[in-house]
Amino acid sequence: MKSHEERHWQTVYSTKDPAEVSWHQSIPRPSLKALEQIGASSAQSLVDVGGGASTLVDELLDRGWRDLAVLDISGAALEGAQTRLGQRATDVNWIAADIRNWSPQRQWDIWHDRAVFHFLVEADDRKRYKEKLLQGLAQDGALIMATFALSGPERCSGLPVRRYDASSLAAEMGPDLQFVEGWTDDHLAPWGSIQTFTWAIFRRVS
Ligand SMILES: C[S@@+](CC[C@H](N)C(=O)[O-])C[C@H]1O[C@@H](n2cnc3c(N)ncnc32)[C@H](O)[C@@H]1O
């Protein structure tokens, strides 16, 4: 049986144009900046968790990355990204799964999450997410995470979110992930309102 969350996100991606959702970015500049900041190289592997229809993979394919995966609870989101990429979609591993129930079959050098972890308002869901994170992120791998900041909206896509600053996010990630640096970034929604995000980089230390 489909979860409430899966039905929600399937409806969103089946009924809305990708450019009209609040989180849309034509170019994912903050993610590219974060990758630059950790000194990422195209020889590394990356999983975009809750990547939806983001163009991050397009940008990384353009830059020569060849070991990319996008996971999302919505198959419709992934199909949208695949259609956009055309033949290039075959160069990406697409994973239709709920992060809370997923069993990673391998490890990645970089785990990227923009605006997904903040939907986990239940402690048990966050615990499950972190278990998957530790299964799927390589030793010494990097976590790039963006959530709504403390001054950001209380809801996203009609769902409640949990907001963070860098220190509460670092406390949430725990001792296995060492906080490297954090900053805030103002995202402009397509209709002009500003949504402040907390961005943070972590390094897996155990
Ligand atoms: C606000 S959107 C952000 C999409 C993308 N990261 C971006 O920056 O454009 C949140 C995404 O998380 C996905 N999502 C929500 N809950 C999820 C879950 N439990 N497991 C996997 N994906 C989930 C949604 O389908 C959606 O694509």
Automatic annotation (TrEMBL):
<dbReference type="GO" id="GO:0032259">
    <property type="term" value="P:methylation"/>
</dbReference>
<dbReference type="InterPro" id="IPR041698">
    <property type="entry name" value="Methyltransf_25"/>
</dbReference>
<dbReference type="GO" id="GO:0008168">
    <property type="term" value="F:methyltransferase activity"/>
</dbReference>
<feature type="domain" description="Methyltransferase">
    <location>
        <begin position="47"/>
        <end position="141"/>
    </location>
</feature>
<dbReference type="Pfam" id="PF13649">
    <property type="entry name" value="Methyltransf_25"/>
</dbReference>
<protein>
    <submittedName>
        <fullName>Methyltransferase domain-containing protein</fullName>
    </submittedName>
</protein>
<dbReference type="InterPro" id="IPR029063">
    <property type="entry name" value="SAM-dependent_MTases_sf"/>
</dbReference>
<keyword id="KW-0489">Methyltransferase</keyword>
<keyword id="KW-0808">Transferase</keyword>
